[in-house]
Specification:
The chain has helices at 2-22, 28-49, 58-79. It is mainly α.
């Protein structure tokens, strides 16, 4: 259980950090982790809609979470009126 939680946090941190850099706006350590974890769920959901399996280890998980996190950041910006949190 603890290992699984740690796995999700690491995936979320890496994916959220990469997405915040690519999308040019940081959300801080905790924000990046949350963006990455929610992005992983969103990315996995979207891949399943297209009939693509997301099994393949940590690298595939990071890629799926990264794609989902980028989509999530774009949605958040669209909802917030285009304002981004830049540092």
């Amino acid at each position: 259980m603890l290992t699984s939680l740690l796995y999700w946090v690491i995936i979320g941190l890496v994916a959220g950090f990469l997405a915040s850099r690519v999308m040019r706006g940081g959300y801080g350590l905790v924000g990046d982790i949350i963006i990455g974890i929610v992005g992983a769920v969103l990315g996995g959901f979207l891949l399943n809609l297209f009939g693509i399996g997301a099994s393949g280890g940590i690298i595939v998980s990071i890629i799926v979470a990264f794609i989902g996190a980028c989509i999530l950041i774009a949605i958040l910006r669209a909802v917030s009126g285009g304002r981004s949190r830049r540092r």
